Amino acid sequence: MRQVEISTPSILQDQLWPAYVSLGFLTMWMPYVWPIAYVCGALLIVMFIRKRIIRTLSNEVSFSIRQKEDLLFIDDETSCIVRIDGYERIIALGVPLLIRL
């Protein structure tokens, strides 16, 4: 099972898309507030593109770490091998890669 952990800005959370759709349709025909419909549409487009990139990366990119010693104690050191498959896809999408160990 692949675990994907992503920090999401609060304005782009998946639970908000029904609110953006309904607010966009309601304000589309009202005078003086119709620009809110464009903002809601732009947010929906950003949410869709972000979700598509996340799905693509989680399906095509894998990450594994191998270390020589299985059991480590405090202040022990070992060498490890980090393997990233599908790194070309990350570069093609223009997504920065950050690995914290």
Percent in strands: 5-15%
> How many beta-strand runs?
2
Instruction: Using the CA coordinates, give the radius of gyration.
Output: 21 Å
Helix content: 40-55%
Outline the fold blueprint:
Blueprint: H1 17-28, H2 35-60, E1 62-67, E2 80-85, H3 87-93
Antiparallel strand pairs: 1-2
Protein architecture, described:
- The chain is 45% helix and 12% strand.
- With 101 residues, it is an alpha+beta fold.
Task: Name a few traits of the molecule.
101 residues; alpha+beta; two-stranded antiparallel sheet; elongated
In short:
This protein is of the alpha+beta class.
